[in-house]
Specification:
The chain has three helices and ten strands; from the N terminus they run E-E-H-E-H-E-E-E-H-E-E-E-E. It is an alpha/beta fold and 180 residues long. It has one domain: Rossmann fold, CATH 3.40.50. The strands form two sheets. A six-stranded mixed beta sheet has the order 5-4-3-6-7-8. The two termini are 16 Å apart.
């Protein structure tokens, strides 16, 4: 089992690259089935979801899709600020479109709750969520439960595979949990 130290914390590998690939394939298979012969708009939440989104989009075989990006922030360090900041707003028209929001992790659901409301206000026909990681015990907004989940996790802080610690370690090929 690999381990690393980052900013004074010790992290141990939790999901290996092959386990991540299996989760991505499972999510892609469900989206392929649900959106076969449709043209959804994937809205990738930067910065964290870019790695998952790249792998997920390449795994789609039966879906003709369009991709756009949005950048929001609600975290500082290991804690949420409780407030969503739009850094790069949605540039694409979503009116009468099926939208799939792609996230790296859903915990409290604040980001997804607000993004779904934003997409609906812009006229989206449907809004679903695909996430690599989901913390069901942390969810505070019922409408934020993801539709496509790579892996469920408890309340540990995780890094790697797009997930950062103050902007660093997104490039790790595995997902690591903090070890107390």
């Amino acid at each position: 089992m690999r381990s690393i130290n980052e900013q004074g914390y010790h992290f141990e590998e939790w999901l290996t690259p092959s386990e991540i690939a299996k989760d991505v394939q499972q999510v892609a298979a469900r989206i392929n089935a649900d959106y076969r012969d449709k043209e959804p708009l994937f809205v990738v939440v930067l910065n964290g979801a870019f790695v998952f989104a790249a792998d997920l989009l390449r795994a789609l075989s039966d879906v003709r899709c369009e991709v756009t990006f949005i950048r929001v922030s609600s975290y500082y360090g290991m804690a949420t600020t409780g407030k969503l900041e739009f850094i790069v707003p949605l540039q694409q028209v979503v009116d009468n479109r099926d939208v799939i929001i792609v996230e790296d992790i859903v915990d409290s659901g604040l980001t997804i709750h607000q993004l779904k409301a934003h997409m609906r206000a812009q006229g989206a026909s449907s809004v679903k969520v695909a996430t690599m990681l989901y913390k069901p015990n942390k969810l505070e907004y019922d409408d934020a439960k993801p539709d496509y989940i790579g892996h469920e996790i408890t309340d540990e802080f995780v890094i790697g595979y797009g997930l950062d610690f103050d902007g660093f370690v997104r490039n790790l090929d595995a997902i690591y949990k903090v070890k107390e």
